[in-house]
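Protein: Metalloprotease PmbA
Species: Marilutibacter chinensis
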Amino acid sequence: MNQITTVIDDSHARLDALAELSQSLLERCRAAGASQAEVSCSEETGLNVSVRMGEVETVEASRDRGIAVTVYFGQRRGSASTADLREDSLAATVEQACAIARHTEDDPAAGLADAGLMAAPFEDGRWRDLDSWHPWTVEHDPQRAIDLALAAEQAGRDFDARIENSDGSSLGTGTSLGVYANSHGFTGHERSSQHSIGSAFIAGRGDAMQRDGWYSIALAAEDLEDAAAIGRRAAERAVSRLAPRTLATGRYPVLFSAEMARSLVGHLLGAVSGSALYRRASFLLDSAGTQLFPDWFAIEELPFMRRGFRSANFDAEGVATRESALIAGGVLQRYILGSYSARRLGLQTTANAGGVHNLQVAANTGDFEDMLRGMGRGLLVTELMGQGVNNITGDYSRGAAGFWVENGEIAHPVDGVTVAGNLKDMFRAIEAVGSDIDARSHVRTGSILVGGMTVAGEG
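Structure follows.
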C-alpha cells in the first residue's frame, strides 16, 4: 500500500511572522537614528537528489533563512545581514548597518525608491494572484524523488545502445517565502515554488564520445515533462551529436536554437542595464529611442504572467511593476533601471530593481521546422562555449556546436567551430524569430535566425 504524504501549508503564518520581524527591525533602525530603512526577510526549503548508473549519489534537504537590513542616514548607506533570529544578533545586525552608514561618504543617488511609486494591493487587501505557489509533496518524500530521478536515467540508458555512460539524473524541488518592507510604510509578501528534473548522458566511447542532456523546470510539478520522457530526450540529443564534422571557415546564416537564443536577449539586457550604463561600460550607451532591430522585432515585459518564473507585483524596492515594451518596432523603448541607477542617469526607475520580470520575444514565423526550411542552408547552434563577449564594444566570439543544415533539413552534427560578429550587427541581421518558445526561463523566446555571421572552422 502506497504511503500518502500530507503536508500542512503554513506559508501564510510564516509570511506573517516574517512581516512582524521586518517591522520590528524597521523600528530598531528608526530608534538608531536612521532617516530611511529597508528590510528583506526570506525563508527557503528544498530537496535535491541525484543518481548515476542506477545508484543514489546524493540526497540533500535544505532550510535556509536570510535577513538583510539597509539603513540611510541622509544619503549615506549601510547594510548588514544575518540568519540568526536571536535578539542579540538582530540588534547587532542593525548596529552594524548603522555603523557602516555613519562611516561612508554621501552618495547623491542613495535612498529608497520614491514613496509615490510603491505598489499597493487591491482595495480588499489582496495582491494580484500570480499562481506561483505550488509546493510538491515530493519535498517531504525523498524516496519518491529518488524514484523519479532513477526513472529518468533508466529511460535514457535504455534509449539507445550507443549510450555508453551517464552523467546522472537529478530532481530538485523547493519553496521560497519573502517579505520586503521599508520606512515608507510599504510591506510586500511573496511566495513561490520551483521544481526540476534533468538528465545528461554520454554517447559513444573513447575520442568519439559526445555528451548532452535535457531538463524540465516549472513552478508547478504538473507542468513538468514526464521523467522518462526527459531521460529519452537527453539520450536522443547525445546520440544525435555522434560523428561531428567541422566546417570550412566562411560566412553563413546562423540559427540559434531557442535555448541558445535567449543568451542573445541576455546580452541585450546586460547592455541596457542601469549599472552598465552609468559606468559607461556598454556598447548601447545613449541608445534609448534608437533602432536596434528590424522593424518587426518586439520584446515585452510581462510581470503579471501566471506561473511566470519572474512574475511579481513589485520589484526589489517595492516599486509597482507594470507591463511595458522593451523593444517595439525594433526600437529600444527604455533601459532596465532600479532607483539607484535611474538617479545616476537622471531618469526614473523602470521597476526593475532585482532584474526583469518575464520577457516575451514576439515570433514572426512558424515552428522550428519552419525556421530550418526558411534558413535553407547554414549552421544550427545548439551549444555555446566560452565567454567571448565584450560588453563595451559588442564584439562577439564564442565556441559553438550544433548541426549543419542543407536544403532546410539537418544534415550532420558540427563541432569545433567559432561563431563571431558584433552584437549590434547581429541584432540588425535577425531575419526571423520562431514560435518554438523555450518556456524554461523568464526570457521566453523561440529560435532566432541571424542572416550572416563569420563561422571559423577549418582553413
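Remarks: Residues 90 and 197 are 38 Å apart (CA to CA).
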